[in-house]
Amino acid sequence: EKAQIGVTGLAVMGRNLARNFARHGHTVALHNRSYGRTKDLVEQFGDEGKFIPSETAEQFVASLERPRRVVIMVKAGGPTDAVIDEFAPLLEKGDMLIDAGNAHYLDTRRREAALKEIGIHFVGMGVSGGEEGALHGPSIMPGGPKESYDALGPLLEDISAKAEGEPCCVHVGPDGAGHFVKMVHNGIEYADMQLIAEAYDLLRQVGGHSPAEIAEIFKGWNEGRLGSYLIEITAEVLKQVDAATGKPFVDIVLDQAEQKGTGRWTVQAALDLGVPVSGIAESVFARALSGGADVRKAAADAGLPGPSAGSGEHAGDLRADVEQALFASKIVAYAQGFQQIQAASKEYGWDIDPGAMAKIWRAGCIIRAKFLDFIKQAYDKQPELATLLVDDYFLDAVSGAQQAWRRVVATAASQGIPTPGFTSALAYYDGLRAKRLPAALIQGQRDFFGAHTYHRIDKPGSFHTLWATDDRKEVDA
Ligand code: 6PG
């Protein structure tokens, strides 16, 4: 008997994906650079399903039915290229190499183009949900050629998470589309996490609540419209007590957030596409600021002046207002992320259905939330929606939230509590609603120093003012 699917790279993510396939009745070929991991998997979990372990790449390839489906689950970057170089010569036309790592979508585009030359289908596949998700049902975002999805999709849908009975897996679009969407998922994940952290900080510093009390607040919020995996685990982290010191866990962890890079990639890509993903950008920068120990120390030593946190009152119901600010800022972050997906889809001709992305993020992935139902509905109603903010549900939500949102941002500013997520989201919102933006002045400055020209509101064409002359006459440019 041959295997329906193979997994190479059997560290925890690869191992769990392999077990998930086997648990769903598929025969799974196994391969790892060192055989020890392969052996361990079969020894520990062999009774979960049918596995065909191989010591060599050749044996592994020979153990697969055709067209072969080879899932690569190794570190993104060089290691992925090394595995592709090892396997590509062993495969035949129509076989599939499926990269399930967090690859950069430009690497995926390059790899797909190269493998196409020799008739191998390369599928860059986003997988979200961490170790648990990989084992029990992740959200899966496969890109690559459409025809490869016909042979691969059913297996992936089988092992994916289910939301209201429907698989959290869909063909995202050709070439790098899957990895692009996974990257934006992670960017949104960063924004969600930053906003939650700001909410916690305000409840603690302004409200004077303990981490355990805030855990209860988050638990309550999890029952409402904010209900999501990240809110749920926030409550768990906040109620955790450090065994060694008896202090709240959040008070003994070094306050320097790390990152592996997908959030940064999201922002880099957004800059190239010209999409203002300010919420995601602020969350990446907030992590960088927190990690800048030397700069923070210099600032502390110099005693940068300002109010001490929590030195004043909040002009309203803090808990209710923070919930509103969090929800409104979250809407902005998602609106920006979805706009980025739409922009990339257009740029690369991927034809991504944004509603389908919201649909497959409803379960399995890190940003899973009730909220995504509304995003799906918004795009179902209007596939060409310019921004989520103008959809009825979200418009209504921000209308209801905006006064509270402003109070929260005002409190944070007046008490010196950094809330880059809440504040930038509000600035973005006000930027969108402004009748006139000061961008007109910027155009004037550009024309003044560089003759960069401008457009007029009252007639078509490009114009330049002769700023250096006495009469500063306007001429056609
Ligand atoms: C997921 C996660 C996963 C990983 C992040 C962590 O969707 O399952 O996003 O991909 O945990 O990459 O990212 P940072 O280390 O950059 O916070």
From TrEMBL:
Q: Which InterPro entries match?
A: 6-PGluconate_DH-like_C_sf (IPR008927), 6PGD_dom2 (IPR013328), 6PGDH_C (IPR006114), 6PGDH_Gnd/GntZ (IPR006113), 6PGDH_NADP-bd (IPR006115), 6PGdom_BS (IPR006184), NAD(P)-bd_dom_sf (IPR036291), Pgluconate_DH (IPR006183)
Q: Which SUPFAM superfamilies match?
A: 6-phosphogluconate dehydrogenase C-terminal domain-like (SSF48179), NAD(P)-binding Rossmann-fold domains (SSF51735)
The enzyme's E.C. designation: 1.1.1.44
One molecular function GO term is:
phosphogluconate dehydrogenase (decarboxylating) activity
Keywords (alphabetical) are: Gluconate utilization, NADP, Oxidoreductase, Pentose shunt
> Which Pfam families does the entry mention?
6PGD, NAD_binding_2
Q: Which reaction does it catalyse?
A: 6-phospho-D-gluconate + NADP(+) = D-ribulose 5-phosphate + CO2 + NADPH
Q: Which family does it belong to?
A: Belongs to the 6-phosphogluconate dehydrogenase family.
Q: How does it assemble?
A: Homodimer.
Function as written in the Swiss-Prot or TrEMBL entry = Catalyzes the oxidative decarboxylation of 6-phosphogluconate to ribulose 5-phosphate and CO(2), with concomitant reduction of NADP to NADPH.
* UniProt-recorded name of the protein: 6-phosphogluconate dehydrogenase, decarboxylating
